[in-house]
Specification:
By secondary structure, the protein is an alpha+beta fold. It is 28% helix and 25% strand. It has two domains: 112 residues, no CATH class; 113 residues, Arc Repressor Mutant, subunit A (Orthogonal Bundle). The strands form five sheets. The protein has a four-stranded antiparallel beta sheet with strand order 3-2-6-5, with no helix packed on it. Strands 9-10-11 form a three-stranded antiparallel beta sheet, with no helix packed on it. A three-stranded antiparallel beta sheet has the order 12-14-13. α5 crosses α6. It is globular.
Length: 245
Amino acid sequence: MRLLIKEFYALSELQSAWEMADHDVQYLLLTGDLKLTIMVHGVHLTSRLPGWGYRYGKIARTYSGILDLKIPDADYVLRHGQVSICKFDMPNGDKGQLVDVDQKVLVRREDLLVTHDQRENIEHNILKLHAPASEASSSDFEYSWDYRRIEYAGETFTFGPKQARVVQLLHRAHIEGDPWRTGQQLLDHAGSSADRVRDLFKSQSAWTKLIVSDGRGLYRLAIPTCSNTPEPMDLRSANPRAAAG
């Protein structure tokens, strides 16, 4: 079953595509490999949201967007069909709750969503649906002096300056043997005002073939990692500015 590339998916459509039973979804949920999400509109809640300051602690605001369900609440929906909740996990990793905790949000089974990053994590790391070709290795990773042109596993990627800085940081992390970086680290390094790495790379439909996510905010290059991986060949020697770096 072929699915459109979307920001989020109904859990039911992914279960159909994955041919996955409810008990397997519950297992992935309880092990922390899958996080379920809902969409809310005009919810009045409190949370330490980016750009809202901390002087007076948590700040109330009206919020529309996605909220992650806590594991016990998500599990309850899967088992019983619906649950009423007042506390959530915010997209930025903070905790949020309704200003009026007596005015709970009703979450039904059909409301459950899975974000694109979560889908990528399950398909790449759990189901192995998009495992890299066996011949792909560090030696297949070639890059220009400014990382704006990358060749990997038979494909050529052309990036803008900020996108290239993300790839550069991830490549450095790979060489150092500590390949994972948070999305915020990558965005800060790139000097990007985007909220998510996916937003920064939205002009590059194939970027997930080069950069993979664990579905929980961490990213690395798709290059296989092992302790004795040789340093990859690069294209910088063709440019004299490389020596100055």
